[in-house]
Amino acid sequence: MSAQRDMKEKNPWHTPVTIIFSVIGVIAIVALVTVAVLQNRPLPQKYKYGIVLDAGSSHTALYIYEWPAEKDNNTGRVEQTLSCKVDGPGISSYASAPWKAGKSLTKCLEQARQKVPVKRHSETPLYLGATAGMRLLNLEDSSASTKVFQAVEEALQKFPFSFQGARILSGQEEGAFGWVTVNYLDDRLEQNLQTRGALDLGGASTQISFVSDNFDGSDSPDNAVAFRLYGNDYNLYTHSFLCYGKDQALRKTLAQQTKSGPGTILDPCFHPGYTETKNYSVLYDSPCVSDRKPQGAPATFNHTGKGNFSRCQEVVKRIFNFTECKYSQCSFNEVFQPRLQGPFGAFSAYYFVMNFLNLTDTSIPLEVVTERLSRYCATPWNQVKEQHPGVKLKYLAEYCFSGTYIVTLLTKGYNFTSENYPNIKFIKKIKGSDAGWTLGYMLNLTNMIPAEAPDSPPLPYAGYVSIVTVIALLLFVLFIFSLRPLWPRCSKHPQII
Ligand SMILES: O=P(O)(O)OP(=O)(O)OP(=O)(O)OC[C@H]1O[C@@H](n2cnc3c(O)ncnc32)[C@H](O)[C@@H]1O
User: Coiled-coil region(s) at which residues (predicted)?
Assistant: First the structure.
């Protein structure tokens, strides 16, 4: 008893001090862990939005993009969150009743109004970019094109978004922004990987854009676009062929066959058994063919299918000029084109048509592609209609021509061969976003792709908090050990001093 009393008397404050330090330490740990957990708990994601209207020659489509609101320098990933196809034709078709062009857009804009949270409406930029249809209308009748834009702007300004204007994109912009879209979505720009060329087939124009080692723009400055993206320089080759979209190319091919204004044309690009009465003035109502309108032709002609792929290819080839080239190498129509390089993504009508024909797999050799097309073109029209009851008749009637045109454009026009044809990938979407110029256009106008690679902290935030917590714990344990001399002795045999 007296020994125990001795011990208590020697260290009267040992136990309370240790308890106080321990309590403080435990509180410190709990506080640290709470801070780390609170900092890292998933917050409800907030988004920003951007809207782009693609006013194409055949139709208009609205796309909404979203990206995380809290990212600095707009470095968050941009994704398509809604697409809306406007009913009716492209805005250039409303030249005689411009107000209808504006009205046609309202349904999709209403959808956008529902989709974008109300508190983001006023800060959401809204762009309209028009492509080859409006380029042609502007060439043909610039005052009609101005009126269509006025009507469209009036309609768009009625919505609560931040309207940034409606304009015609140049062919060069259309090609370059299509290339940016494809490579952004594939993460090839940020990661500095080999880029993918872009092949876009619209209704009125077609674009080819790619990076080639032997192109620095000096041969043909009009085809050069220089970009600095994420700290890397790109010298892009791009060309847009106006009147070589699939609808205008079809007009050109028909115009080739109706030069002398016959009453009937036997067209190898349409199925046997197909026959329609068509109007000459409708066929030649486009600047792509208007100068070739036959004199003294009847009002209508009989368009009759013969279904012959190789003869169709002969007719299609005649719409290209391969004879003249003032450069070291050309694609067609005296347009410079450097050596094809790298993988390619082919979208829009390239995809629609090749997907219908079951030919999106480019490991199918080109000879097999042409064999299949020959068989398809030779299929009687009635049989084709029976086999595809749900497909729009206009598209269905034209797939033989469209497939032949695509193969001819790629191989004879751009010089793809059996060796590099497999480098092409027919694509519609990449990671949920449509391939096309709209995303690249918005990224550019909102400065979403920095010229320099953003400086990133050496550690991600969660890693930083975890390391701080572990170090704090270690320090605390060391601290407790440093108090060892003050620890109460827990011996079964009390020491008597
Ligand atoms: O770029 P521009 O030349 O202005 O044309 P666009 O913007 O209207 O062109 P799209 O990419 O929307 O469409 C390209 C073409 O594909 C056609 N098209 C769309 N859907 C199709 C489908 O399912 N099958 C076949 N063709 C289709 C459409 O009519 C056009 O002729």
Answer: none
Phi, psi of 197 (to 5 degrees): -70, 160
For residue range 370-400, what is the model confidence (pLDDT) as tens digits? 999 999 999 999 999 999 999 999 999 999 9
CA angle 8, 14, 17 (to 5 degrees): 145
Enzyme catalytic residues: 174
111 is in an annotated binding site: no
User: What digits encode the pLDDT tens for the residues 22-54?
Assistant: 777 778 777 777 776 776 666 667 999 999 999
Atom 14, ligand 1: residue with shortest CA distance: 202
Is domain 246-426 classified as CATH 3.40.50.720?
Answer: no
Residue 96 assigned to a binding site: no
Which residues are near ligand 1 (CB < 6 Å)? 56-59, 90, 131-133, 202-205, 245-247, 348-349, 352-353, 356, 395
- Is pTM beyond 0.80 here? yes
Tell me the residue length of the chain. Answer: 497
Report d(CA 138, CA 131) in Å as an integer.
Answer: 11
Domain ranges for the chain, please list them.
2-41+459-486, 246-426
ipTM of the complex model: 0.99
